[in-house]
UniProtKB/TrEMBL annotation:
It is an enzyme of class 6 (ligase). Its EC number is 6.1.1.1. Pfam families: tRNA-synt_1b. It comes from Sphingomonas xanthus. The gene is tyrS. It catalyses: tRNA(Tyr) + L-tyrosine + ATP = L-tyrosyl-tRNA(Tyr) + AMP + diphosphate + H(+). The keyword Lipoprotein does not apply. This is Tyrosine--tRNA ligase.
């Protein structure tokens, strides 16, 4: 389909579109007026991770195309938990924990979006504002009547869970109704006409579109992105060392930069389109690089993505640290550090820096010859390390580097 609006053209050429409802009507609407669009984020942790970044970038593209992003924090739905394609129910979070997570996550969006009172300025809302006050019987009567249990059971997000004979609580089953109600509420409150999300949200989005049409006669739309996986089939945002958090207090700048620097060669062009603002012409030039020259494209990706999330200075320092560490054999200042006040075991050093998740994994890495201290291979898992002066450089494999420093 050839799009006329700057919004759908931008989303299409950058690779964000998987499914959309009535594309022609949405294209026409976006070509003639500002379209407010939203994505919901449930506050299950103090930070979002890279797995949520494509959705954040989707809101950024919405604003870049002259439309209004709505960030919906799930202070209400977070008390239920989205069961979509999950094997089991999420742990129940208390209200204080949810409120703390919401406050923490808000900081992330200010780096990607411009907030304010203008027609295309982003706004942030919390669905607890309307969900917490719902009365059960009136809600069942007014909203529940528009949902067919037969149809709800047919959605893949529910069907796959039941096919595997995994428990789906009545609480979780209600999640799709609450999300549909969010769309209708936003349409009423601030004229929201578009919900965006990952492909796993398609059923929930369609529910919201149908509910809004049935209750209010308003036409609204949905767009989903493809499931973003790496070239080797892994989900975005996960590594052997754990989640790639967007907050610097949960993942150092250098580790964030390194995540992007280490992507598979096959992912470089796609990730440059999705996760940076580099012009498409420049991206085409970078992704055409061959052999060792592709490393220049990876560095461009890492620096641009880090600058957007962590700031230009963090990106610059991380790139310089990498240059000193890998090209000059030194130890750049942005390497992750572990302060040591007394001699520690090599296993403690590996887990303390976050290079290994357990002593068992650390022992395996040592047995493989993958661990070095100041360039010397470690062979004894009982080796003790004392820091009496200069920092000691600890290396795991070719790409993980950290410093052991004396505690003040």
């Amino acid at each position: 389909m050839t799009f006329q609006s700057s919004l759908l053209k931008l989303l299409d050429e950058r690779g964000y579109i998987h499914q959309l409802t009535d594309g022609a009507a949405l294209d026409a609407l976006a070509a003639k007026q500002v379209v407010p669009g939203y994505i919901g984020f449930d506050p299950t942790a103090p930070s979002l991770h890279v797995g949520s970044l494509v959705q954040i970038m989707l809101l950024r593209r919405l604003q870049q195309a002259g439309h209004k992003p709505i960030v919906l924090m799930g202070g209400g739905t977070g008390k239920v938990g989205d069961p979509s394609f999950k094997d089991e129910a999420r742990a129940m979070l208390g209200e204080e924990r949810i409120a703390a997570n919401v406050a923490s996550i808000k900081r992330i969006f200010e780096r990607f979006l411009v907030f304010g009172d203008g027609p295309t300025d982003a706004v942030m809302l919390d669905n607890a504002e309307w969900l917490d006050g719902l009365q059960y019987i009136p809600f069942l009567r007014d909203v529940g009547q528009h949902f067919s249990v037969n149809r709800m059971l047919s959605f893949d997000s529910v069907k796959l869970r039941l096919d595997r004979e995994q428990s789906l609580s009545f609480l979780e089953f209600n999640y799709m109704i609450l999300q549909a109600y969010d769309f209708r509420e936003l349409a009423q409150r601030i004229g929201c006409r578009l919900q965006l999300g990952g492909s796993d949200q398609w059923g929930n989005i369609v529910n919201g579109i149908e509910l809004t049409r049935r209750m209010d006669g308003v036409e609204v739309f949905g767009v989903t992105t493809p499931l973003i996986t790496t070239a080797d089939g892994q989900k975005m945002g996960k590594t052997m060392a754990g989640a790639v958090w967007l907050h610097e207090d949960q993942l150092p700048h250098f580790d964030y930069w390194q995540y992007w620097r280490n992507v598979d060669d096959r992912d470089v062009g796609r990730f440059l389109r999705l996760f940076t603002d580099l012009p498409l012409g420049e991206i085409e030039r970078l992704e055409a690089l061959q052999g060792s020259e592709i490393n220049a494209a990876k560095i461009a990706l890492a620096t641009a993505a880090t600058a957007m999330c962590r700031g230009p200075e963090a990106a610059k320092l991380s790139e310089e640290t990498a240059r000193q560490t890998f090209e000059q054999g030194g130890a750049g200042g942005e390497l992750p550090t572990l302060a040591v006040s007394e001699p520690i075991n090599i296993l403690q050093a590996l887990t303390g820096l976050g290079f290994c998740s357990s002593n068992g994994e650390a022992k395996r890495k040592i047995a493989e010859g993958a661990v070095k201290l100041d360039g010397i291979t470690v062979t004894d898992p009982a080796q003790s390390i004392a820091i009496n002066g200069d920092p000691v450089k600890l290396t795991l494999g070719k790409k993980r580097h950290g410093l052991l420093v004396a505690a003040n």
